[in-house]
């Protein structure tokens, strides 16, 4: 089968999806499929690197890198790049014949719609890979409910995205929660949903021992990743303010984001000596530092579980950590933690979160072999081979049809 994957930041660009797509694409090529990737020069988060070939055959995959301006001009330039990339990807698809066009949800709504048109132009089926559910994500972008104009815009964009979903031969989401959100738009009952989560990135794994622990006997919580508006991290810091440092519990942030300075100011004002910040690190270094902690923290604003699934879960498990999730009890993530004794989910005020942190310390700090058990869960449920084979089985259904 001749497959076209459209993704702006394909490997060696740095987002996790770019690396994951490389793994799947090369595996499909090894199985005899003809795999093409339309991408651009690496530039994720404004990073600059030496230009790569415009055409390259690597790992059995034909890579076409479109010439785009450098993404250094803020939102305007990113929007221009998104438009140019999608138009160029459509042009490439329309000039060739493919059996399957594979697209994801960035840029939101537009990427999927463009891929749908591209698939029709080249006589292909569409595989729509939803890493998040847009435009519903924007309902949670602010602590206040959206106004009338924003609600109307979300409604229009949801209608367009539903059209894409109904046109697709397969819509892949990361959780049952995400699937229900799309299905509940109305008229999407016949969408061919498949729940396939992401997998642990192989480059994070290492045979070396984890770094030496900090000189502390504390039970250490770690939050690694984007310190953004969707993470509800002010609640976590407020909970830590209710925990006396003498209790032997500390929190460490690894990463950066728009809420970082606000959290740092809260920590300074409250004099929280048991809350620490690390700068953003390369993913493998962040992973190694994470391995030295005792509990990984996932935190999302209320309702976000319906439109997203945190990849931090698999990263923490692969690092050998049980998980504290500040998330609704009815979410897929909370069910997973309870069903596998892999952590604790809570959503409440700072006092409730502080109590759960203490309970997590008492529950997990004394369990022998906890790191090995968590790593085994990661391999079973989010291992590269297991998830890769689920993708192969899905692609094989298109061949059989």
From TrEMBL:
A GO molecular-function descriptor: glycosyltransferase activity
Xref: CDD domains: GT4_WbuB-like
Residue intervals of the Glycosyltransferase subfamily 4-like N-terminal domain: 20-194
InterPro entries: Glyco_trans_4-like_N
Segments forming a coiled coil: none
Pfam families in the record: Glyco_trans_1_4, Glyco_trans_4_4
Name of this chain's protein: Glycosyltransferase family 4 protein
Organism: Microbaculum marinum
Upper taxonomic lineage: Bacteria, Pseudomonadati, Pseudomonadota, Alphaproteobacteria, Hyphomicrobiales
């Amino acid at each position: 089968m001749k497959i076209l994957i459209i993704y702006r930041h394909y490997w060696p660009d740095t987002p996790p999806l770019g690396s994951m797509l490389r793994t799947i694409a090369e595996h499909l090529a090894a199985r005899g499929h003809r795999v093409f990737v339309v991408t651009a020069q690496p530039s994720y988060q404004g990073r600059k690197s030496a230009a790569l070939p415009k055409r390259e055959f690597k790992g059995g995959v034909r890579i076409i890198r479109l010439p785009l301006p450098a993404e250094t001009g803020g939102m305007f330039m990113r929007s221009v790049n998104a438009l140019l990339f999608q138009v160029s990807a459509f042009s490439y698809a329309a000039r060739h014949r493919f059996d399957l066009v594979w697209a994801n949800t960035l840029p939101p709504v537009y990427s999927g719609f463009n891929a749908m048109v591209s698939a029709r132009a080249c006589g292909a089926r569409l595989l729509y890979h939803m890493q998040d559910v847009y435009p519903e994500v924007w309902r949670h972008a602010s602590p206040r409910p959206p106004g009338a104009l924003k609600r109307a815009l979300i409604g229009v964009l949801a209608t367009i995205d539903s059209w894409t979903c109904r046109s697709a031969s397969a819509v892949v989401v990361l959780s049952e929660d995400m699937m229900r959100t799309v299905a509940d738009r109305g008229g999407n009952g016949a969408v061919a949903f498949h729940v396939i989560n992401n997998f642990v990135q192989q480059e994070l794994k290492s045979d070396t021992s984890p770094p030496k622990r900090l000189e502390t006997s504390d039970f250490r919580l770690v939050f690694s990743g984007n310190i953004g508006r969707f993470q509800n991290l002010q609640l976590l810091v407020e909970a830590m303010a209710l925990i006396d440092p003498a209790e032997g519990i500390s929190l460490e942030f690894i990463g950066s984001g728009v809420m970082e300075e606000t959290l740092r100011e809260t920590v300074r004002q409250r004099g929280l000596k048991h809350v620490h910040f690390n700068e953003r690190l390369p993913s493998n270094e962040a992973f190694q530092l994470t391995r030295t902690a005792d509990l990984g923290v996932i935190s999302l604003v209320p309702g976000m579980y319906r439109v997203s699934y945190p990849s931090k879960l698999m990263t923490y498990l692969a690092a050998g950590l049980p998980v504290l999730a500040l998330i609704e009890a009815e979410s897929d993530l909370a069910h997973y933690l309870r069903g596998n004794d892999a952590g604790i989910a809570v959503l409440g005020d700072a006092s409730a979160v502080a109590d759960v942190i203490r309970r997590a310390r008492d529950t997990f700090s004394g369990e022998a072999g906890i790191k090995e058990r968590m790593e085994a869960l990661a391999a079973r449920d989010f291992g590269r081979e297991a998830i890769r084979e689920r993708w192969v089985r899905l692609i094989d259904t298109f061949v059989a049809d």
